[in-house]
Amino acid sequence: MNFIIKRDVLLDGVQKTLGIVNKKTTLPILNNIFLEAEEDYIRIVATDREISLISRYEADVTERGKITLSAKKLYEITREINGDDVHVQVDEKNIITLSCQKAVYRIMGVSSDDYPSIVAEENTTWYQISGRIIKNMIRKVFFAMSTDELRRNLNGLFLHTGMEEDQSYLYMVSADGHRLAFAKEKLDNQDFLDLSTGIIIPRKGVVEIRRVVESDPENIFIGLMGQMFLVQSGNVILKVSLINAEYPDYKRVIPTEKGQEILLHRTSFLHVLRRMFVVVSSEEFRTVLLTVHDNQMLFQSKNADVGEANEDMDITYSGNRIEVGYNIDYLIDAADVIDEENIYFEIGEGRKPGLIRSMNKEEYLCVIMPLMI
Questions:
Q1: Measuring CA to CA, which residue among 127, 175, 135 is closest to residue 151?
Q2: The domain 255-368 belongs to what CATH superfamily?
Q3: What pairs with residue 229 in β-bridges?
Q4: Which of 3, 24, 338, 344 has a CA that sits 20 to 30 A from residue 115's CA?
Q5: Alpha carbon distance 182, 49 (integer Å)
Q6: Which listed CATH number (2.40.30.60, 3.30.230.10, 3.10.150.10, 1.10.10.60) goes with 2-114?
Q7: Helix or strand holding residue 370 (H, E)
Q8: What 3-state DSSP class applies to 279?
Q9: pLDDT classification of 222: cutoffs 50, 70, 90
Q10: What is the pTM of this model?
Q11: pLDDT value, residue 373
């Protein structure tokens, strides 16, 4: 193998693989990336068997070949190299030589014979969608995914499509048993990927999808290949194995009975919560008591080991007096992802869940269970 490639191109290509290579694997070769030189390009592949990234980059190839090598070492070397072009050579003993200007590095590679085969995607039907839509929806629901490995069906995002009044929508949902986040966006393309039954994308896959769409927020294509969700952006294809489980009926969690509605200034609400968090939060204590009456919201929190905090803010509310406790992190997470400055907070009666949503009631909402005080 022998080729020359732009240093910045190689660095970007290797950096994209770092979140995928498996550092705790029982199969050491999965710590490596697969590097292949073809006629006028190189192909970089990373996989942990559940997620695969395949990318192509232009290169001046004088000798074809393939090899695997440490993703981390290649990234660190390329990052420190000064110069425009990197010359990569591989000899018959799988020793890889990287040279750039006066710098020369030699690292051991591993034969690609035992590297997992990545199934081709030639028969996949691709559907275009704005990367900004995917990025925005992930931002609004990512925080509510469960980290409980015993609840595998909640360890990811639930993605599905549907129709409302002859309009196609994309829906994204996450939940952890204590809260649920929901986002939806209109689809301009009525001939879109059919996700009417829904799919569950695992957390690690969601992280990688977000990285792909951030690099190219406009020209994104998605598709399905069996139990794999595919995302294509330019010269990069990401394949994510789906969670094979049934997602709970999330619509049953969203309150149908309207709670006591409060109109809040989002930034002021967040500032108060964050000040409370600094004073009283600990690993075991995350509770804030809200008292609402006469256009005022009083925040109270006490931690025997740290101290206490009290603050109030102006709101728009004229109903009955309410006292309710919530996890302060959950309130911050729910409000922080809303883009509008004014938001609604619906507090349910008794032990019923609260609901934080945008002024556009249909676009985003977060359901939060109250705490015992």
A1: 175
A2: DNA Polymerase III, subunit A, domain 2 (3.10.150.10)
A3: 224, 240
A4: 3
A5: 29
A6: 3.10.150.10
A7: none
A8: helix
A9: very high
A10: 0.91
A11: 67
